[in-house]
C-alpha cells in the first residue's frame, strides 16, 4: 500500500478534485487509459475515499461528461444571446458554438459522446445556467423560433433537429480527425447555407421582409485526401 492509499481523507472538495484530475488524465491519456485508483492517488487520497463519491471510473467519467454538456449548453446560450433576435442568426450561432466547442475541447467532446458519456450506461445530463435547457433543447428552441417567425414551415420543422445536430457533430468530428481541407468554420458556413436551402428558410420568408443573405457555397471538404 502506498502512502497516498493509507493516508486518511482530509480533502475539502474531493469530488471536484477527482473530476479535475479526471479531466487532466482524459486530456493526457484518453478515457480508457487510467483508473479511479490512479485519479485518487494523484489528488492524494485513498481509493476508498474516492469510492465514496464515485462507484467506479465509469461513474467518474459520466459526471465529467455531464460537466461538458453544461459547458456546451452555456456556450450555446452566450452565442445565441450575442446573435440578437434574428432567428436564423440564432440558429447559426447555435451551430457555430457547437463546432467551436468540439474543436476547442476535443478530448472532452470525444468523452461526451463516447462509451463513458452519452453512449454509456450512466445517466448523462447538463443544462445551461441561463435557460435551464440542454444543448439539444436549445437547438430545438432555435428551430421552433424559426417556425414562429415564419421562416420555415411546420412540415419542414419536423425532424430538423436531427439534420442540424448530425451535420454540426459530423463536421466537428471530421475536423478533429484532421481530414477537412480548410478551416472548419468556413466549412460550417457553407454547410449552414445548404441547410437553410434544405429547410426552405428563404422560400418561407414573409413577403416584404429583409432579403436573405447570399447562401455560401460548400467548399471541397476532402480535397487532397488520398493524393
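Q: What amino acid sequence fits the structure above?
A:
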Amino acid at each position: 500500500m502506498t502512502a497516498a492509499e493509507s493516508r486518511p481523507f482530509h480533502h475539502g472538495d474531493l469530488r471536484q478534485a477527482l473530476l479535475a484530475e479526471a479531466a487532466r488524465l482524459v486530456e493526457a491519456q484518453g478515457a480508457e487509459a487510467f483508473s479511479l485508483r490512479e485519479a485518487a492517488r494523484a489528488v492524494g487520497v485513498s481509493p476508498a475515499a474516492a469510492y465514496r463519491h464515485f462507484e467506479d471510473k465509469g461513474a467518474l467519467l459520466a459526471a465529467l461528461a455531464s460537466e461538458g454538456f453544461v459547458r456546451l449548453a452555456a456556450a450555446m446560450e452566450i452565442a445565441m444571446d450575442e446573435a440578437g433576435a434574428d432567428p436564423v442568426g440564432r440558429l447559426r450561432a447555435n451551430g457555430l458554438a457547437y463546432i467551436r466547442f468540439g474543436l476547442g475541447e476535443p478530448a472532452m467532446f470525444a468523452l461526451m459522446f463516447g462509451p463513458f458519456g452519452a453512449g454509456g450506461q450512466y445517466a448523462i445530463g447538463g443544462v445551461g445556467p441561463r435557460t435551464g435547457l440542454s444543448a439539444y433543447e436549445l437547438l430545438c428552441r432555435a428551430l421552433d423560433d424559426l417556425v414562429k417567425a415564419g421562416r420555415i414551415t411546420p412540415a419542414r420543422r419536423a425532424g430538423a433537429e436531427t439534420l442540424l445536430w448530425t451535420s454540426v457533430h459530423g463536421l466537428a468530428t471530421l475536423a478533429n480527425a484532421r481530414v477537412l481541407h480548410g478551416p472548419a468554420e468556413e466549412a460550417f458556413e457553407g454547410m449552414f447555407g445548404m441547410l437553410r436551402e434544405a429547410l426552405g428558410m428563404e422560400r418561407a420568408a414573409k413577403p416584404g421582409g429583409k432579403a436573405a443573405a447570399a447562401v455560401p457555397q460548400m467548399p471541397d471538404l476532402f480535397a487532397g485526401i488520398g493524393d
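Q: And what stands out in the fold?
A: The chain has a mean pLDDT of 87.
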